[in-house]
Specification:
137 residues; Arc Repressor Mutant, subunit A; flat
Length: 137
């Protein structure tokens, strides 16, 4: 055997296999992982970071300045996001750049945000007093 062993590459799934696994309602482990991953986005600052990174790569300093919080606090949020796989990094010299790890995650966040806006509009429409239409307020 050679001195340098190659690690076996994990088997790649086709897009069809990924979709089938994602849509399966009997995969309890996937539900647990899904819930764990969603905890990343249970914090407003992390959602704001995700939104910012949706525009492109940024450094911790840039993100902290945008959020108006300390570098330490920003780094803690980014560590949580990186540990769960929501963001990844690229080093250029001494600088580390953060970016969204999978564009589907950002797309999911955007879909949820759109649904929240729709629910807000629906809720506002349903609370209009009797005899007043939502358009004649």
């Amino acid at each position: 055997m050679s001195a340098t062993k190659r690690r076996a590459q994990p088997a790649r799934l086709s897009e069809e296999q990924i979709v089938a696994l994602a849509l399966s309602s009997d995969n309890l482990e996937l539900f647990a992982r899904h819930a764990d991953f969603c905890r990343v986005f249970s914090d407003e600052k992390r959602l704001r970071i995700m939104w910012m990174l949706g525009e492109g790569e940024h450094t911790v300093s840039e993100i902290a300045a945008h959020l108006g919080v300390s570098l330490q606090n920003t780094s803690q949020h980014l560590r949580v996001m990186r540990d769960k796989g929501a963001v990844c990094t690229r080093r250029h010299g001494q600088t580390i750049y953060y970016r969204v790890a999978n564009p589907k995650t950002l797309a999911g966040c955007r879909l949820i945000r759109q649904a929240i806006v729709e629910m807000s509009v629906d809720l506002a429409s349903s609370t209009v007093s009797p005899g007043r239409s939502a358009t004649n307020r």
